[in-house]
Specification:
Elements lengths: L5 E13 L2 E16 L2 E9 L6 E11 L2 E8 L5 E6 L3 E8 L2 E16 L3 E12 L2 E14 L7
Antiparallel strand pairs: 1-2, 1-10, 2-3, 3-4, 4-5, 5-6, 7-8, 8-9, 9-10
């Protein structure tokens, strides 16, 4: 196992469905992929809004037995953190410029595959604030390892 981060191209598509409709976003970014003994760690910088600047995103994928466990962190020190595990409900936090929110995350689907050069991660989950559903979310992420050799 290569325990050094490898440069990769990240492509992320996120969709939110709630009572107001459907919204989506796409992000392409350079990042790093670090293989671990139980999965991988993906890091990249994301710009959601020019007024807030760049935010570091770290996604940790771990295999536990036959199950996949995902932690999605945003911001310095992982100020915002989603814990995703199929069929389980976790309390998570999200820090905004206006304050912190605590909410429940229930994950209905996690699909993870890595063939040595190309990683795919698909997530589907719902968020609840108190006992009120805030929406259903899906994330489709790919990471393609870049060739680090230079041609002459």
């Amino acid at each position: 196992m290569n325990n050094r981060p490898q440069r990769c191209l990240i492509h992320l598509e996120s969709t939110q469905r709630d009572e107001e409709g459907v919204s989506s976003m796409k992000i392409d970014s350079d990042g790093e992929l670090l293989l671990t003994s139980s999965g991988c760690e993906i890091t990249y910088d994301e710009v959601m809004d020019q007024s807030f600047g760049e935010t570091q995103v770290r996604i940790t994928v771990s295999k536990r037995g036959g199950d996949t466990y995902v932690i999605l962190q945003r911001g310095v020190g992982g100020a915002s953190k989603l814990i995703l595990e199929s069929g389980k409900r976790h309390i998570s936090n999200y820090v905004t410029p206006f304050g912190a929110l605590n909410f429940y995350v229930t994950t209905s689907n996690i699909r993870y595959d890595f063939d040595g050069k190309h990683l795919t991660l698909d997530l589907t989950y719902t968020l609840e604030l108190g006992n009120v559903a805030a929406g259903e979310f899906s994330i489709a992420l790919t990471a393609d390892i870049r060739n680090n050799t230079r041609s002459r």
